[in-house]
Design brief:
Chain lengths: ~325, ~280
């Protein structure tokens, strides 16, 4: 990078090229001003040519961003202040009413909380179970390739499919789980998995933990690149396997832990299908997460799209905040 | 999966340790396979293997199982082509060109990694409708590409930054334009990353339920992931069809399963080199 601290003006001048839509006059002007300033200060025609070339290469990407993100966010923010439906005809302006309703709706608060809880459960599962399995699979144990596939493949399948299979399996009357329990004379364990609030919650957490494949993959990749001379010394000193696991391998995987935590947190905002296809957010909204909440309001009949947009704005801000923290984080660790 | 080093092998040198671990692994494996066992067991209820053959001969609603495969494949191919094309162009600019505001722009682009599909559902619906792309493969492939592009930029920049600048400069000395350098130097060198990226694009397309379910109103466009829901509406309501419904779930897993079986190497390489997505 040739110049330091370009700031938001730099972004605008690169971002608001010829593809900028007319409805963003502010950005456009900022872009022109930025370019004019630059031309005065630096560096001759070559630099300017480079800028034009870069812009050409970036044009398709910027077009995507303008349509789907910049315009999308603006549209979302505007809709969140209206009462409207999916036809977007005759919207009625309602100010911040949607947000007021949103923050007084226990279900929305619970959905956000559930996001956190499910993500936390998945993180806990990944850092313990996922880490442990990855280590065991890396020790050259028999059948490791088969086991690796068994743990990883479900995480690469369509989530809708996995969650539906769980839903069917957990059905209380004909579900395979209860049938198996009954035939093993463990009737007392057979429960109403999907309709009892506590159990339904546990089922969703179960699916989050079940999808531990990607963490295992990240750990496996890291373990295979590990410098093993330290380990060898510790083994020769007579350290036991659990000791090695806790005091040596776990701390050594620090960067991968970070990757795993961040990827799971981000995944929890996208985990709409897990809930939608297993418990459908029920019973009584108990297992709802942000994704199902927005989806249900956006697709339900009636003028609720403004309200859904307000919820989407909140979710979006949280997700972007998380991403920004993560970027800071990884930038720092690079330095 | 990577080869095991001797030191890792030493970890479980004790016989007792190894036996315990093998036992635990078997138990976990059994638990992880149970849902698959459940799906297959139920898929045989009622009609036995006839449940499967019926799905190949009779359409469910308006579509056959082949149609859903074909729809999924078309969208996945479009999605991959768009992301690879747009991503490679942008990757070249970020890795090999110097311009003002590059890092700020880059972080702005990568920031959108976190955007969940459900959050931009409402504007997407509006945009795709205004563009007249309802019931059009592009109408689903374009938003999918928009969600994947931040990852693509991240992956390709990580890869492209490791291509030595001297190669680019040497070509520039020979008076090659940037477009020519892009085509003849950068693209061939990026091939491994682009292959990984396109396989990942296909995988994410096959996983996507959200966009097809929202942006296709005509049933004939049903993809395999969307069919999980639409087949349920046709089949899971009557108890006699529950076997057939489960058979359909097993069959709908086939495209993703084939991709994973044949492309696992690329998926792993792409995900671990690109860092974080899902």
């Amino acid at each position: 990078m040739t110049t330091t601290a370009p700031g938001p003006a730099g972004t605008a001048s690169a971002g608001a090229g010829p593809a900028a839509p007319r409805r963003l006059p502010g950005l456009r002007r900022a872009g022109k001003a930025g370019r004019a300033r630059k031309a005065k200060r630096i560096d001759g025609p070559q630099q300017r040519g480079m800028m034009r070339t870069a812009l050409l290469f970036l044009l398709p990407l910027l077009a995507f961003y303008l349509v789907f993100y910049v315009f999308g966010f603006v549209f979302l923010a505007r809709t969140s202040l209206q009462r409207t439906d999916l036809s977007f005809m005759d919207p009625e302006s309602v100010g911040l009413e949607n947000y007021r309703l949103l923050f007084t709706d226990d279900r929305f608060i619970r959905a956000l909380l559930n996001n956190v809880v499910f993500a936390a459960a998945a993180v806990a599962g990944a850092l313990t179970l996922g880490f442990f399995l990855a280590v065991v699979l890396s020790t050259g144990i028999r059948g490791r390739k088969v086991f690796y596939a068994v743990f990883l493949v479900p995480s690469l399948m369509p989530v809708a499919l996995i969650a539906s299979v769980f839903g069917g399996m957990m059905e209380s009357r004909y579900g395979t789980l209860n049938e198996t329990l009954r035939s093993a004379h463990l009737d007392f364990l057979a429960g109403h998995w999907l309709t009892e609030p506590g159990l339904a919650y546990a089922v969703v957490i179960g699916i989050f933990v079940y999808l531990v494949g990607l963490p295992i993959m990240y750990y496996t990749a890291d373990l295979s690149a590990l410098n093993t001379s330290l380990l060898e010394a510790a083994v020769l000193d007579g350290a036991s396997f659990p000791q090695l696991l806790r005091t040596m391998l776990f701390p050594l995987m620090r960067t991968t832990h970070k990757t795993v935590v961040i990827s799971i947190l981000l995944m929890s905002f996208r985990a709409f299908e897990i809930v939608f296809f297993s418990t459908k957010g029920g019973p009584a909204g108990g297992t709802e997460i942000s994704g199902t909440y927005v989806y249900n309001y956006a697709t339900s009949p009636g003028p609720r799209v403004g309200y859904a947009s307000a919820a989407a704005v909140v979710v979006l801000l949280l997700a972007l905040l998380l991403s920004a923290i993560q970027l800071r984080f990884s930038k720092k660790s690079e330095e | 999966m990577a080869e095991t080093s001797d030191a890792m092998r030493v970890l479980t040198g004790r016989k007792r340790d190894r036996r315990i671990l093998q036992g635990m692994l078997l138990l976990m494996g059994a638990i992880w396979l149970f849902p698959i066992y459940a799906a297959i067991k139920r898929s045989l209820e009622g009609g036995g293997t006839g449940n499967y053959t019926a799905l190949f001969t009779d359409p469910v609603g308006d579509v056959t199982i082949y149609d859903t495969y074909l729809n999924s494949f078309i969208i996945a191919a479009l999605h991959a082509a768009i992301v690879v094309g747009v991503g490679a162009l942008a990757g070249y600019a970020f890795s090999k060109l110097h311009f003002r505001g590059k890092e700020a722009l880059y972080y702005g682009i990568v920031l959108c990694l976190a955007v969940p599909g459900t959050a931009i559902l409402v504007p997407l619906y509006y945009t795709i409708r205004e563009a007249g792309l309802f019931d059009n493969y592009l109408g689903v492939a374009l938003p999918e590409a928009a969600l994947t592009l931040p990852f693509a930029v991240l992956l390709l920049r990580n890869f492209g930054d490791n291509i030595p600048d001297s190669l680019i400069e040497a070509a520039r000395m020979d008076r090659a334009g940037h477009w020519q350098v892009f085509r003849t130097v950068y693209l061939p060198l990026c091939r491994p990353a682009l292959v990984n990226l396109s396989i990942l694009c296909v995988m994410w397309s096959l996983q996507d339920f959200l966009f097809p379910s929202l942006l296709f109103t005509d049933e004939k466009y049903t993809t395999a992931a969307k069919a999980v829901q639409s087949f349920q509406q046709y089949l899971a309501t009557s108890p006699s069809d529950i076997g057939k419904y489960n058979a359909s779930l097993v069959l709908l897993a086939v495209p993703a399963l084939l991709l994973v079986v044949f492309g696992l190497r690329f998926i792993t390489a792409g995900l671990t080199s690109g860092g974080v997505k899902e």
